[in-house]
Structures are given as structure tokens and as C-alpha cells.
Amino acid sequence: MLGRNDLSGLRFIDVGSGSGLFSLAARMLGAHVYSIDYDPFSVSCTQYLRQQYYPDDPHWHISQGSILDDQLVNSLGQFDIVYSWGVLHHTGDMWKAFSLVDHLVKPNGGILFLSIYNDQGALSRFWKWEKRNYNRYAWFKYFAILGYYLSLIPWFLRDILLLRNPFLSYKNYARNRGMSWFHDLKDWLGGYPFEVARPEEVFEFFKNKNYILLKLKTCGGGKGCNEFVFLKQ
Fold first, then answer.
1. Whole-angstrom Cα distance, residue 71 to residue 219?
2. Given pLDDT bands bounded at 50, 70 and 90, which one contains residue 160?
3. How many CB atoms lie within 10 A of CB 192?
4. Which regions of 151-220 does DSSP assign to beta strands (E)?
5. Distance CA 77, CA 208 (A)
6. Phi, psi of 158 (to 5 degrees)
7. DSSP 8-state assignment for residue 106
8. DSSP 3-state assignment of 34?
């Protein structure tokens, strides 16, 4: 997406670092990395990766915090590359997060790489309702998981009757996605707060902040994320 395989010497911030894998990739490409996440378990996981691959590295900093914290954001400075994949729509205030993440991007050449859930209209409103209730009611959580698994019965029947391998789809999904089907299921059903935006809305927002769109990868109007690479003028 960035069109390069060398980030040597560039300041790179991973906003919502999660497991830390993207921060690790940026460090391996030579960037000076700053990883930040609101979740303490994600911070611990990122710290573990750094200890395994770059112990005591002065060019990889990790901290806990929120992109919605104005004071924290203003204390971080500016970066050559600001990366936030599938994060800002889970903050509870996505548009404020957009405004604050802009503060991190260096003017005159800074890169902003975002991934944001696609707005599917009524279907997105349904998923917001589902995710809110998944986190609010224990009984709803089990009902949602059961309902999702029932919807997968045709897949399993196909694997059994046509391919003679009842777990083929499950294994292929886990291999391609990099996580188990069940954990990915919980991540989707319970991922709340949940906000969405149409590609043109994201484009217009950052265009008004003096960005140029360099690359766009959409999910074809379906469920998932649209990816944007912007250049700040």
C-alpha cells in the first residue's frame, strides 16, 4: 500500500498497535517505531514482541493511551508515517479521532494510512445494534454466537458431502486470516464501539485538511474495511 519496502530512519507511529505485528514489521523495515494502544493486554503483547526481536531497542517505544486524549496526542510530536488499521472506528468518537490523528502527521510529505469500516447503511445499523447488545447482555452473546454457527451449516455440509473434509473451510479460514474462526467470530460480533463511513466521507474529511489521496482499496461495498493512503501537503 505504501509502495516501498524500506522505511529506514522514518518516524512511524502505530495507532492502536494491537498484537504489535505491524509495529514489528515497520521496525524490521528500518523505521523508528512508536506503538500506542488503549488496551493494556495489547500493550503487553507488543512489549513481548519487542523483547523477542528487538530487546531494549531505543528506536521502538511502546505506551498505553488513547488517540482521543488531546494532551497525549499533542505530546507525541509528528511522524513521517501514521498507521492505524481497523482502529479509529472502535474509539467511540471516530470523527474526533480523525481530527486528532491528523495532528500526528508531518506536513509537507507525511503519510497517513487508515483502514475504516465501510458504511452499508441499514446493515451497518443492524451490526451496531447487535454489537451493543452482545456486550450488554450475556444471554444475547450466546444467542448471537449460536446463530452465526447455524448460518455456517451449509459450508460444513459442502465440505462433508462434496469435499469429504468436514473441517476444510475452518482450516483454510484460520490459515488465511491468521487467527482461529472462533476468535475472529467473537472479534466481529463483540467489536463495540462500532462506527462506519463511506469512502467519499473519509476522502472529503481529509481533503479539507489538505491531504491528497494516494491509494484506495475498498471492500467492494460489502462488510469490511476500506483502506486509504493519504499524503499531507
1. 34
2. confident
3. 17
4. 211-217
5. 22
6. -60, -45
7. P
8. strand
Q: What is the pLDDT of residue 150?
A: 87
Task: Classify residue 94 by its DSSP letter.
Answer: H
- For 66, 67, 100, the CA distances from 93, given in Å and listed in that order, are 11, 10, 11
Classify residue 76 by its DSSP letter.
S
> Would you give the DSSP letter of residue 88?
G
- Residues 6+ positions from 116 with CB-CB distance below 8 Å: 86, 88, 89, 94, 196, 197, 202, 225, 226, 228
Length of the chain: 233
pTM of the model: 0.91
The closest of 129, 120, 101 to 205, measured between CA atoms, is: 101
What does the pLDDT look like over 103-138, one tens digit per residue? 999 999 999 999 999 999 999 999 999 999 999 999
Are 36 and 13 in contact, with CB atoms under 8 Å apart? yes
